[in-house]
Write a structure and sequence with these properties.
The protein is mostly helical. It contains eight helices and no strands. The protein starts with 30 loop residues before the first helix and ends with a helix. It comes from Lactococcus lactis subsp. lactis (Streptococcus lactis).
Length: 172
């Protein structure tokens, strides 16, 4: 398997970094090369293979690209997969005690809250966001999500009142 990150053979952990003056140019990440070799698709397939090989490793779910997440959403597998790596009970919970705390918790929370917002499940997103902000109070993604949910809530409330007022006017 090819990895984008160097890992120790025995411990499987990332290799310690050392400050150097070496400059590495990755030609493979140039737009032309990405398109030529359909790297997004290859990356997605590699991550799916790694999930099959190591189904209990949250790292692979945390690194899923948007393209991979879309494929899982279409097949209705994403929420189940992310909950498996986020929650002790493998199901959504707003309780901080049910959250699996590991190296990838923050990334998985960001992805799951983003998913909940995408599907306009603002109540669940807001509950989970409170947990995220307790654990990571300075996380910019969580702060952004908080503002976004507030804006969407105001929009929804405005629509509700507008519809109510229109019904009164037209006596529907």
């Amino acid at each position: 398997m090819v990895h984008e990150e160097l890992r120790n053979k025995e411990t499987k952990e990332a290799v310690m970094s050392i400050d150097t003056r070496i400059q590495i140019i990755n030609k493979g990440s140039e737009t032309k090369q990405v398109i030529k070799f359909d790297k997004e698709e290859r990356y997605k397939n590699l991550l799916f293979q790694m999930i099959e090989i190591e189904p209990d490793n949250p790292r692979w779910v945390a690194f899923l690209s948007n393209r991979a997440i879309e494929a899982l959403i279409i097949n209705e597998q994403y929420e189940k997969l992310i909950c498996k790596h986020l929650f002790i009970t493998n199901k959504y919970s707003k309780r901080i005690g049910n959250l699996k705390i590991h190296k990838y918790t923050k990334m998985l929370l960001e992805k799951y809250i983003s998913y909940l917002i995408l599907w306009k499940n603002y109540d669940k997103a807001n509950e989970l966001l409170k947990v995220g902000l307790l654990l990571y109070p300075n996380n910019m993604a969580f702060i952004f999500f908080k503002g976004m949910i507030q804006i969407e809530s105001v929009k929804d409330l405005s629509k509700t009142y507008l519809i109510r007022d229109l019904k009164k006017i037209y006596r529907i």
